[in-house]
Structure formats: C-alpha cells, structure tokens
Amino acid sequence: MTLSAYEQREWDRLQKRKAESLNKQSRNLLPQQARDRLASLGQKAMSTPGADKVAAAYGGAAKGLGRVVGDTAGRTVSRKRVVEQYRRTGHEIAGLHEIRELDLRVVDEVARHNLVRYGHALSAAATGLGSAAAVTGGEVLASAGTVAGAGAGAAPGLGTVAGAMLADTAMMLALATRTVASTALSYGYCPSDPEEEIFVMSVIALGMATGTSAKTAAYRELSQLTQLLARNAPWAKLNEKVLTKIAQAFAAQFTQQLTKKKLGQFVPIAGMAVGAGLSYRHIDRIAVSARDAYRERFLIDKSGGDLTGNPNYGAADPAQDDDAIGVIELLREEDALPTSAPSDSEDQPDN
After folding, report:
1. What phi, psi does 141 have (nearest 5°)?
2. Residue 323 and which of 194, 263, 330, 350 are 20 to 30 A apart at CA?
3. How far apart are alpha carbons 38 and 249 in whole angstroms?
4. Which residues, in sequence order, are CB contacts of 16 under 8 Å at separation 6+?
5. Which one-letter DSSP state was computed for residue 147?
6. Model confidence over 74-115: pLDDT tens digits?
7. How many Å apart are CA 339 and CA 132, to the nearest integer?
C-alpha cells in the first residue's frame, strides 16, 4: 500500500528522531557529585544489619511482578472501547485490524497521545512522591548521611524502605505497561496477545534505556521484533508457561534498573523531589518510546514490510551496558524466538 504524503513525512521524522536519540547524551536531574553522594548513602543503607530482608523481598517480588505485564495489558482500555472511539469520530471500523488501514493522520488524531503520555507520567510522579515520603518516614538515614540505629533496631526502618520501594516498583511497572498497552490499542494492536506482550516489554526496555549502547540495542531489538510480526512469523513455543517465565525475568531486570536509578529516595531531604521527578521522567520516556515504536510499526505494516527502520545499529550488545534489558535474549533463553519461515496465514479479524 502506498503511503500518503503525511505518512511518508512522519516516517522520515521518526527515522530522524531515532538518529538524534542515539547521538544525544543522557541528561541527569542531579550533577555527578550529588549522584555519587546519593549512591554512597544508598550503599550504606543496604549494608546496615537487616538489609538482607530488603534484598530477599526484592528477590521474591520479581515472581509476583512478572505477570503485571500480561495482566495489565489484558485489563487496560478494552478493544471494544477503542473501536467505539473511532466510530464516534466517523470511522466505521469492525475491529482493531481495520485501524491499521486508516491514514496515520487520522489515527494520530484519535489516539490522543498527549493525554496518555502526561496522564500516566503525572500518576507516576505521585507514586514516586508517596514512596519517597514513606522511605523518609522509615528514617533509614539521618540528614547527615549516617545510618540511623544499629543492629536489629535498623530492621524496621529497612522494612519500611523495602515495602515502599516494592510498592513503587509494582506501580511503576503497571503504569509503564498500561501506557504502552493504551498506545498499542490506539494504533490497532492487541497488547494481550502473547507476541504483543513481548513487543510491549521491548518498548518499555527502550524507554528505560539511557546509555547509547542500551538504546542502540533496544532499537535493534524492536526492529527485529517488528519484522518478525510483520511477516507473521510463528510463535508456537510462546505458550503461557514460557511467557510467564519471560515476564518474570523481565520484571526482575526492570526492578533492578528502577532501583538503581532511584537510589536518591534513600535520602530524606532530597528523596521526595528526586523520587517524583524520576518517576515522571521514566513514564514520560516510555510513553514517547511507545508512540514512536507503534507509529513506525504501523507504517511498516502498511507498506507491506517494504519499509524498514535504520538497519545500521552496529554490534551493540545489551551485555555491554547494564542499563539495557535484553528481551530478545530472554526469548532465546527460553528457545521461544521464531526461527522458521514466516507463516502465510492471514490475521483473523478481532472485535
């Protein structure tokens, strides 16, 4: 299908934005000296007697968080509601699959990206503010940076930290997933399908990446997944059990990354502002990544797979950057990455 002038222009803009993102240095809310200080204080807190309880809580939480991706994707804005939204604007479509037959200009207008982006980002800021306040109330650190209490007496404060941070992580993962899932539905993709859940995780991974190597690896993964989905590659090995294991591993890596990025919450004075700001920023990045990823995929599908994202991502490897979450690698570990020839089967209409 031939792209409209608007669609071709937006494709070019998407490729330009991607190139600029890879060349852009990540910005931090705090100067390096302050970040080093926060990291040091966080390390002191985690070496306090009783901190092993925090570590154990995080380890066990990964399994519980693992299904957040699928559950949130399945319960987010319904397909029927999205279809009705298009019908109310004068587009008589039968199901999600017909959204991808519309012009991108129409879809952009109906999708209301800014509402999704800023609504979820503000919710994240409120979540970050609340968890930081709870951490402050735990009095794990005194304002001078010394460890408050000693021995068993430190455990209750650390328990407060663990509970607040785990609740924050669960909410952030749910918000991230809902942000991406809402965008997916608006562009005609059902995020509760198993292979679509993998794409959702990959989009979140891109939004969490800040280093150049991590972003390069994330873009390359999205490009690979987009091509597999565009060719209707078979996902026969992606059953419920395998998908659950992948989601759990993804949640564990998401938890680790989020915790590292939000160590500032361990500081009573700076923690609340830093926690709210970082939460807002993470979800905002994920929202922007989702919009760009689904718009690019929309155009690739509409072109019949003729369009491709920038293939020159080099040899970036997620292992080279601890800021990366490698979703493709998780698929390989479970032997669930499609390797056979693309399927010729047609997509079935969905209502």
Report:
1. -125, 140
2. 194
3. 27
4. none
5. B
6. 555 678 888 998 999 899 999 999 999 999 999 999 887 756
7. 45
> pLDDT tens digits, residue range 147-163?
334 343 444 455 555 56
For residue 149, give both structure tokens.
Answer: 């209490």
The Cα–Cα gap between 112 and 163 comes to 35
Find the mean pLDDT for residues 212-227. 90
pLDDT tens-digit series, residues 297-326 = 999 999 887 887 655 555 544 444 556 889
Q: Residue type for 347, please?
A: D
For residues 274 and 263, give the distance between their C-alpha atoms in angstroms, rounded to a whole number: 9
Rounded Cα distance, 92 and 121, in Å:
32
Rg over alpha carbons for the chain, rounded to the nearest Å, is 21
Indicate left, alpha or beta for 238 from its phi (over 0: left) and psi (-120 to 50: alpha): beta
Q: Which residue type, as a one-letter code, is found at position 89?
A: T
Measured between alpha carbons, how far is 267 from 141 in angstroms, rounded to an integer? 7
Instruction: Assign 141 to helix, strand or coil.
Output: strand
